Amino acid sequence: MPVSVRYFLFPEDSDPLRLSQRLVDGLIQGKDAMPQYADTKQRVMGVVIQNEDGKPTNVDRTYGAIWTFDEDGAIREGLQEAVSEAMGLSDASRTCEKVVPLRPQLKRKRFEEKYRWEPSPSDIDRVIRDIWPKKKADRLKDAKGVSKRRPALTFEAKHALGKVSGGFWEIKLEIDKLKEPGLRGFAFEARKRASEDLEYRHLYNALADMAVASLEILKREKTGKGVWYAVLEVMMTRPDEGYSEVVRVFCEKCDGREAAVAATRKLLVEHANLFNDHTDLQASVMTDLEWEVRAFPD
Fold it and tell me: E strand or H helix at 264, and its extent?
């Protein structure tokens, strides 16, 4: 039976609020914020629900989490900190168990106190009334973020977008094959055609922009000058689920490639304790142009 998770915010001294999946996704991805809760810690309840034919049938389980909102009302940094501490707990349980048995237990207790809370029966009953309302008063109000609701993507629009973008990878592949002289000629000719074939001017200009960006990256790689980033990705493998994912990214903005290389070595030393049998550390340096494409948080 398929399951889904619904989220509810429990502010102090006020009624719970319903968190839409769109808002939760935006908060986790760093694309949304709730400035009304800036610089606070808030209790959130997750309700795992079993569904049938798209409708909730019963509650599988509930859990309580504490979200840390920063000065802008965002939670991404707080979530990354929690993930980092959770990985530290896993590492401590393997390395310290025989030496100091109490240390991992104390760390776990502090972690639970910092990031977990236990919903009461009345808390659970309140959200159940929202999920299966019997009267209008049972429905909770929706929490609000700052991002605007995106317009609906119709089936026709989705199909059209998928069809025209299906070959984007091939465009990038061909441009990436070009060296500096070829990129200059490509960009110039694309601009020229944009001025002549006005119906497709936006597409030709986009092609020219891609060539110019690739040319700039080649120049940066040759000289090592400009803005570079030292990047350390924390990659967690989930054997039971058969995939790996980046759970945290450490970075440092640098002046030039040499400084970025030195900063990357420093990041590796500082965060070596995160490495274990299920967690890899992947280090790299890149220009600010490549950094923007990777869409890491600055």
Answer: helix 257-270
What angle separates helix 201-223 from helix 180-196, to the nearest 10 degrees?
Answer: 160
Amino acid at 223: T
DSSP string, 134-172: SSGGGSPEEP--SSPPPPP--HHHHHHHHHHHTTHHHHH
Amino acid at position 178, single letter: L
**240: helix, coil or strand?**
coil
Any idea which of 143-157, 159-173, 237-251 has the lowest mean pLDDT?
237-251
Residue 135 resides in a domain: yes
User: What pLDDT, in 10s, does the model give residues 189-223?
Assistant: 999 999 999 999 999 999 999 999 999 999 999 99
Bridge partners for 23 per DSSP = none
Domain final residue, candidates 165, 192, 223: 223
Tell which residue, 228, 297, 238, has the closest CA to residue 259. 228
pLDDT of residue 298: 46
Number of domains comprising the chain:
3
Under DSSP, the state recorded for 36 is G
- How far apart CA 258 and CA 249 sit, in angstroms, is 20
Query: Sheet containing 41-52: which strands, arranged edge to edge?
Result: 116-117, 55-68, 41-52, 3-10, 17-19, 141-142
Cβ pair 178, 186 in contact under 8 A: yes
